[in-house]
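Convert to structure. Protein one:
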Amino acid sequence: MIFHKDGFVNAPRKSHAMFFLSQYVRFGYLEDHPDYEAIAEKLIMTDLYEEVASEMNISIPDDDMQPFELKLDGAVFDPNDPIQSLEQYGG
């Protein structure tokens, strides 16, 4: 496995899992808002990534759970409030 940008791109982030779940709600794949945090916690294995990255002397980003801008449409997703983040798309 090649780590891109010294591990920055490959690092699993719970915030990204939460973003994808919010988009499932946005596009009707999920009828109701799930427990975003619980699902992300179960799916994203940051501990495993950190173990391997540490062994390979690869930096571990500390930006998870920070709001981030989507370059596609300029929207900002805040993983601390995924429901509110959907409001910028009209609900």
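Protein two, convert as well:
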Amino acid sequence: MAKDFDVVVIGAGPGGYVAAVRAAQLGKSVACIEKWKNPKGELALGGTCLNVGCIPSKALLASSEEFEKVSHHLADHGITVEGAKIDLAKMLARKEGIVTKMTKGIEFLFRKNKITWLKGHGKFVSKGDAGYQIEVSGEGEAETVTARNVIIATGSKARHLPFAKVDGTLVADNEGALSFDSVPKKLAVIGAGVIGLELGSVWRRLGADVTVLEALPEFLGACDVGVAKEAAKIFKKQGLDIHLSVKIGSVTTSDKGVSIQYADKDGNAQTLDADRLIVSVGRVPNTDNLGLENIGLGVTERGFIEVDDHCRTKLPNVYAIGDVVRGPMLAHKAEDEGVLVAEVIDGQKPHIDYNCIPWVIYTSPEIAWVGKTEQQLKAEGREIKAGQFPFSVNGRALGINAAEGFVKVIADAKTDEVLGVHIIGPNASDLIAEAAVAMEFKAASEDIARICHPHPSLSEVMREAALAADKRAINM
């Protein structure tokens, strides 16, 4: 096996494997280092996203949504179902089957593109005239390879709390919360962010009584304020009990479950007893034990690697992408950066507009946005106009019994350029792509409004919101 490569990627998550594939497409000799092992002890590609993140969580979200439909919503369609039951083991097996199919798919892509998978942990050893020496260890005898270019794509891990030891059973992070062996009667979640809301929603739909404790005073502070208010109202109606401005004191476990001591927003001492606890308080970059000090590369106080707009570190031919660098910790952001770096190495001049990267929360209804919020634009002193249109009067939304939420289009008051689009509603993750395309092309709200959208479809709500920005919505 070759010991020197044009490009070595450390990490085979969405950023890393995409970077490897694109570099190979461009004719480079490529190796990718990955040490992840699945629950069976087998080495697997795909990183956190495919193994214990995006893919398995969406599988469980879909399964739990189907159960909720059968249990509570099919009667609206004139369909009566009695005695619906959950086979949790089969549900989890379905999830694992999807994960395996996806990770094996990346193995196929590696073979197709002649990418060498170096199995183990990658660590910088030194820099020489021929490039960077990287040790790969953990699977058999350690070996050292040389890379003319290195892409660090090691992703992130769940942030843990010092007073809440994660054991994966009673106290779980995102990984353990995807594999509970039974539906908890009472589930506590610390953190009302994306992961906390998604996983809390899964287990609520399957029958858990869910309480979410959030330290911040605002709910979904990153969202447009109108979307956040709508989401809080809908989630409360669904049964998620969300408490804001909470200060956690201690977490103790026993044979009976988990007990959380906390102070509420008024400073009053409270106790929450639950069968299980999910800790979802953000993520931290995986930059430890990479041997960065051996090549003179440091990290920030928060563990991130500093890079420029093209993901270059301060060292020549060393790049970093995805969760280990600035910007949102999103799989598709990492993918775009992977492509960008491969093309930079090839001598091309690619570009990413980070303002056009969409965000999604896969609750029900889904929440998605791209660009800036109304509160951000007003804080900048930007003159804006906004159009909002509800799903409640859309024929397709009514037909599929998913008529909650709205689309909001924000544009510059003078030029009409679209500055942000915010959606809470059915299929928001798909609908937001139109907004991202519009913003990439610097479209005006009038451009969206003039495009013929199919009828009946959810996409018509996007068009109506764009029309509403000019106060000429047709169906309101």
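The mean pLDDT is 97. Residues 4-158+284-352 form a domain with the FAD/NAD(P)-binding domain fold (CATH 3.50.50.60).
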